[in-house]
Protein: Heme chaperone HemW
Organism: Maribacter dokdonensis
Amino acid sequence: MSGIYIHIPFCKQACHYCDFHFSTTMGKKEAMVKALCKELELRKAEFLGEQVATIYFGGGTPSVLETEEIEQLIAAVREYYDVVDNPEITLEANPDDLSEEKILQLAASPINRLSIGIQSFFEEDLKLMNRVHNALEAEKCLQLASEYFDNISIDLIYGMPNMTLDRWKQNIDKALSFGIPHISSYALTVEPKTALAKFVEDGLITPATDEETQEHFNVLNETLLSAGFDCYEISNFGKPGYYSQNNSAYWQQKKYIGVGPSAHSFDGVQRGWNINNNPKYIKSIAQNIVPMEVEVLSSTDKYNEYVMTGLRTIWGVSLSRISTEFGPKYKEYVLLQANKFIEEHLLFVDGDILKTTKKGMFLADGIAADLFMVNLK
Ligand code: SF4
């Protein structure tokens, strides 16, 4: 099973922490939708014999599209690809776009999963992040969306400057009060060249410390596990039956095609990434050329990616798979490197699977880096 990711590179305004690819000029929206449909057509041969199980609208802000535009893109996927009977179709949406009218339209469309960028239920956090929506809109849209959609995920950000543990707990409790089955939660990171990086540089903001951030994660983890969620990936918590199929497929190294500026693709052998410039993307597609650069992954790259994603997830890393896919040397190496973390109770071996413990999950990236191969091919 494979997935299709559609990148919608528009946002109403730039959030202070964001380094994704988007434009705040909506002038090219119509031309972009046309180009995205065309890219879907141009790449259909890549999925010959494959079935598409998930379609994901990410961004940017996909909810700035009209519902007809979203339907047009889904129709293009169905026209050029073999889509399973009941695919998961997710739309990332921002609260300020989710009026009752829009939610009704979306509920009547093929979209069956909403991923809503709430980030925080507190005004001061939303202002600091320069989100378009306010706290009232965050609650209102969630109330409305829950009436029409069963499969809803929200994003929440922790580790924000001045965010007390108490405020973070209130954010989690508020999210739970809506009965949603999935939460994606990320630590705020200060990315270079963002407004947030400038505020930090100018001394206007002091980022949360690593200890504070880890404490936020621990509270999140404890609270959501008690509420019946599984932490199936370091940043993703879902009730059974509500894990994101799209994201799970990425973490399990399944194939996906990403269309749109800056979208990434993976075919099992190579990774590709499209140009991250809207006008150049549209121009190139109009000439029937997909503006993509590719990198063929070496065995070492694939091993490193598998270890990195595996340790971040509930599925862990299969030692027999490492041996079969990469060779016994890799298995010996991973076990040798894992030893000290096993002694520190950050990793454990469960049958054939090497996994992070509850304590180790937050540190998964650092642990994985120690398990990476550098020179062996
Ligand atoms: S809405 Fe999302 S993609 Fe757009 S600027 Fe904000 S964080 Fe970035």
Observations:
- Residues 210-226 form the longest helix (17 residues).
- DSSP finds 15 helices and 15 strands in the chain.
